[in-house]
Amino acid sequence: ADRLTSVEENLATGLSSIFSSQLALGIAEEQSKLASDAKIKALQAQINPHFFFNAINTVSALMRTDVNKARASLLQLSTFFRSTLQGVRENEIPLRLECEHVNSYVSLEQTRFPNKYDITYDVRTDDQIKVPPFCLQVLVENAIKHAFIGCKEHNKIIIVVKQQKQMLKITVSDNG
User: Fold this and answer.
1) Would residue 1 count as lying in a domain?
2) Total domains in the fold of the chain
């Protein structure tokens, strides 16, 4: 420090200030990203308790009338919760896994309300492309909960996934 000229000292002080600011900005950005990820994970981890209890009650009723169907429903429930747990841990999953998650959900709903819903997929992209977990399932769930009130049959949900330039366009439509 004794051998530095005042110009060199000012340069060193200025550089250290710049480096310090850049480090602080990097840390703040990382903290912000972690906070955003934590919020997303907390939302993804919220499983509708009514859905869970309805599924369990349906399986319980099926055990008295159709053991094979009860077993199949339990397997679908297991698949649904396994993919839910995976979705909580991951920021992106293959489209194929998201479709399997939707299929498990719809299968459980179909067990409660046979032949009430018809799901059609029109996937015009690689099914290994990465998507946010639950991006399809919440839209399908919304359609099932809100679009078909009072409709007992002929309820159609159409899922279209297609690549448009650098973006993925996902459309979930219904006839309710």
Assistant:
1) no
2) 2
